[in-house]
Amino acid sequence: MTQVLTTSRQTMQSSNGTGPATTPILQVQNISKRFKAHGEQRSLQQTVINLLGRNRDRAAQNAFWPLRNISFDVYPGESVGLVGHNGSGKSTLLKLITGILEPTEGQIQVNGRLSSLLELGAGFHPDLTGRENIFLNGAIYGLSRKEMHARLGSIIDFAELHDFIDTPVKHYSSGMYVRLGFAVAIHAEPDLLLVDEVLAVGDAAFQHKCLDAIQAFRRRGGTLLMVSHDLGSIQNICNRAIWLEKGHMRIDGRPIDVAMHYLNRVAEGEKQAAKGTNLPALENGLRWGSGRVLLESVQICAENGAAQSVFKTGDEMVIRIRYRCQEPVEPPVIGLSIHHQSGAHICGPNTDFGELTLPAGQTAGEVTYRIPWLSLLPGAYQVTAAVVHRQTQEMYDYHDRAYAFRVYPGASHEQYGLVTLRGEWGSRSEGVKG
Amino acid sequence: MNLSSAFRLSPAQAMPAAYTHLRNLVAYRELIYYLVVRDLRARYKNSVLGFLWSLLNPLALMLVFTTVFTIMRPGHNIQNYPIYVLCGLLPWNYFAAGLLGSTNSIVAGAGLIKKVYFPREALPIAAVLSQLVNFLLAFVVLFVALVVFQSPWSAWLWLLPLVILMQTCFILGLSFILATINVFYRDVMMIIDVVILAWFFLTPVFYPISAVPATVNLLGFTLPLHRLMYVLNPMASLINAYRDILYWGYRTDLDFLVRTLITSLVILIFGYWFFQRYSGRFGEEL
């Protein structure tokens, strides 16, 4: 059931310049993990019953398998991203690889030193100072005192904690705590680094620093296995991605391919969810107006007309609005406005600006707003729809930010701001020497 | 926990696994060191006298027991009772505190166990070793008492480290077993207080064994009570050895010592094996 889209393993290994490596640094062989079902309470009575062997079948029925038959190898120098919904088993897989959990079936072999960023500063003791915690945490990663002494200065530099390194960490802010945790983990210089969503912590500057450190770790030939919901950062950092769904491996391949398959699945799922109609309720303040004209449905669709809530920059988007007039009115104006999740108002087109006059005297109808090339950059967006009297501005029906969609990286590589203006760069050389 | 499946590992499988575990543990010895430091630091934080409590505590206990025992048994003929009671009390405190601390160590370290991998036995070992540090500090009090009461120094004092090592093995072995069971059944922590108290009275810590009748008639059988107390209770044998060396200045009975050593080692090996068998499931159970 696993689809292997790898552009052949050889290409991926040779791409990092080390040539085809023979021994994988991580071998995951047919792993399955079983958790006891919730509510399977342990009591003395239960134990006695289990010992008598009566109750085994029931326990097996209640079992929950977060991972089923997972197999893959990771070779030195690779960096692999794990994607999947919440509950797909990504974190369980990382815990199995670290050794925190034991697989129910199958085998995992790690050929080298492993360090994990599952939770930063997990081993810190509040009463010890920053310096003492560096050594304690280093020991947890399996480093000797001598090795830690050699790294001490650079860890303190990285964590930017010069003035507080001899303060007990219980007095640290959460930011300082996390900085120190990351600094120790990255300086453990493992062969294999496991990262679980930790890049979402700290302020923007520190996140950048962490990303730089991870990139530097990769350049030194380190192997990376990371879990992230952010497909963008997986595409930036990883050269291979694995998609887990409900504990099964769906795809193992290039990040861009995995991302597209994954997004399609996300879109499908959201389409299913969107089938139940999503008109905002009158009570919650998101909808208001006189009600003489009602917006019956607002759908955000892909070019094929199917409702969708996930788009890529550069996709075609159609917003379809159905309305009904409760009494004869003059032709109304129907408008939209699109907001970024930050609140920034991006645009506010309406039928009037668009020089579309709706036919007079009708009782119901549909208008569409077609965007041939979506210039929004990745992020979450909200759509407001409204129908209004052309002259008096009487508001008939107003759906305040009631519809949402999400944009993922697509045709544009731009990263800053909200939109791409599709400008083009040019260059002209002058005064070339020689 | 299915205990019936616990006894199925063949020795051939067990040996290389045990070797890997031990090597792994050696690689993590610095972690144990830092965990001990952490324990000690945490114990004395916010106390004015700090580590002096390791000395004051046995001193205070010595005074209490001497007073109580002298009032209870005014005619007792134990010379230098303070030394007599210290020889029993210090090892007993090491035993009780080590057992309590290490039994809870895995559950108390849940935050760590669920987030990072390290050999799990580091936690109970560190808990016992931090009590060992305490125990060794308390010996200062005992030695001072020996000087003050002008008790003769025994030539057999060199046996002391061996006895301490034996006791440590015994405590570690029990700790491994109890700490493991405590993960699956927290009831252990509830029961252990009472068990330790009962055990305390069954061990000649503050009374001489002669205070107990040598034999007792039970259902028509004559049971050699003194002998049973020593055979069934390694702590009684251990305290007897401490007392022989430190109080009586006697070389202690060799067959006794060897038997206790074997008991301690068997318990340690079984405990370690038992711990290894279930430690993989700690991350899930906690």
Rg of chain A, alpha carbons: 28 Å
Radius of gyration of chain B: 20 Å
Major sheet of chain B: 2 strands, antiparallel
CATH class group of the largest domain in chain A: Alpha Beta
Major sheet strand order of chain A: 1-10-9-4-8-7-6
Secondary-structure-derived class of chain B: mainly alpha
Spans of chain B of at least 5 consecutive residues whose pLDDT stays below 50 are 1-12
Structural class of chain A: alpha/beta
Fourth-tier CATH superfamily name of the largest domain in chain A: P-loop containing nucleotide triphosphate hydrolases
Number of separate strands of chain B: 2
Description:
The complex is a heterodimer of chains A (434) and B (286). By secondary structure, chain A is of the alpha/beta class. Chain A has helices at residues 9-15, 44-51, 56-62, 90-98, 130-140, 145-159, 174-187, 204-219, 231-237, 255-275; strands at 3-4, 26-35, 64-74, 79-83, 105-110, 114-117, 192-196, 223-227, 240-245, 248-253, 287-288, 293-301, 310-312, 317-325, 333-340, 345-347, 364-371, 379-388, 395-408. In chain A, strand 9 and strand 10 (248-253) form a beta hairpin. The N and C termini of chain A lie far apart (60 Å). Chain B is mainly α. Chain B has one domain (17-285). Chain B has 12 helices and 2 strands. A two-stranded antiparallel ribbon of chain B has the order 1-2. Chain B is globular and about 60 Å long. At the A-B interface, helix 2 and helix 5 of A face helix 2 and helix 5 of B.
